[in-house]
Write a structure and sequence with these properties.
The chain is α+β, with helices and mostly antiparallel strands. It has one domain (about 5-160). The protein has helices at about 25-30, 50-60, 85, 110-120, 135-145; strands at about 5-10, 35, 90, 100-105, 150-155.
Length: about 160
């Protein structure tokens, strides 16, 4: 066992309906187990190759909200995540993260809206809607992403200019 927060994952394909679309995604359908060896892992591939589906399933199986945010975010504007998360078991390491965030480009607007709803006098809003998409992304990085955390990003480059990338 290494000191990673997420050691790996297993997928029980018996828990996925026979005609579910995730079974038709070649990059995912062959995975029964996956072991992480480094603290940072990149999934790269063509559109429709299953990257977002896999990242979303990992995030939800780990305890994040399907639309994004910290583990404390609990809302749904449209329930579109696959049942892959229900078939997935995450192998956690012995260390516990101090922070965590799931960022997905297509639902960031909803997360920024809920951030306002969740704010109070002790936790004021960071005003993500008052910033550009890229500025908001960078603010989240500065506000939530510290050492000893689990961060799952789906298409983070969508928010950033070429210079910021």
């Amino acid at each position: 066992m290494n000191d990673l927060f997420i050691q790996g994952l297993t997928i029980d394909w018996n828990r996925v309906r026979p005609y579910n679309y995730v079974r038709q995604i070649p990059a995912i359908s062959g995975i029964d187990t996956f072991t992480f060896h480094k603290p940072i892992t990149f999934f790269a591939g063509e559109n429709g190759s299953g990257k977002s589906t896999l990242l979303e399933a990992i995030a939800v199986a780990y305890g994040f909200n399907a639309e994004g945010g910290t583990k404390n975010y609990s809302f749904s504007t449209y329930n579109s995540h696959s049942e892959l998360c229900e078939a997935m078991t995450i192998s956690k390491g012995y260390r516990r993260p101090k922070f965590g965030y799931f960022l997905r480009a297509e639902s960031f607007y909803n997360v920024a809206t809920k951030e306002i709803d969740y704010s109070d006098d002790n936790h004021p809003s960071k005003g993500y809607h008052q910033k550009s998409h890229g500025e908001s992304f960078l603010a989240i990085a500065q506000d939530y992403m510290g050492a000893d955390g689990v961060y799952i990003f789906d298409e983070p480059e969508a928010a950033l200019s070429p210079q910021r990338q």
